[in-house]
Amino acid sequence: MPQQQPSKAPATQTTAPNPSSYLAMGCIMAAGALWGCIGLFNRSLSAMGISSSSIVLLRNTGACVLLGLLFLLKDRSIFQIRVRHLPFFFGTGVVSLLFFTLCYFRSQQLSSLSVAGILLYTSPTFVVVLSALVFKDPFTKRKLCALLIAFLGCTFVTGIWGGELSLSLQGLLLGLGSGFFYATYSIFGRIALAHYPPFTVTFYTFLFAGVGALFFLDREDMATASSSLWSVFLVLGLIIISTILPYLLYTKGLNDLGDSGKAAILASVEPVVASIVGILAFGEPMGLGVILGLVCILISVYILR
Known about the structure:
globular; about 0% strand
């Protein structure tokens, strides 16, 4: 943005906060909160015997189909892209979304949920570093401070300080992989947003992720997922509440905010919401770590405001 020239207008007119920035931050935090609800559906589907790879397939393919039908009826211009830009959506769909979910769900199986959650939330660090390298985003003291506090909050929430962690080399690598691939969406998505509106980016992200997930098709799992009204409800909740809505909100917020590092840190509300869901839905204990984690996340958001 070009530098403003001095004027005789009151200082309050040039220093007033930008409402669109607050709206963008709200969209990103809302996306993180909805992602935090994924365990509500994921855990219930797993209890029915559906594998993690099949849940990934249901999530990505279902989101692609629903978004496709919605945009087909509402605005077909969203489907218009250039062939030379397909690699952008291969990045957001396969590299970011598909690889992230496969690594994260497998990491949860090989290590404790606390370890998997902590390793996933190395992602803001990857985003800040990659954004500085790719987009030349400033690596400010404010951003570094917010990053450290947000990560500290995640460690409180996931219970690392309780000393009950278990970790294998494979679990470590998969956990770090989930954090890295999760981070790449903010990079690939930002590149794609320079050419297309948020809805187009979101649709083609799920199109590529859905096609890639078809390699993990399990007919028995698909039959189980459609065997009752309750299982269908859980699948739809997974697709709409914890997939389509948060990705639309996050992509919109990332587009308006224009700072991948800030967006990734703001989305760190996810583990706090996930812990609250565990407490309310599954009777998990309300510990001091959840409270401290929530405080840290709110402090990091305040720093970035």
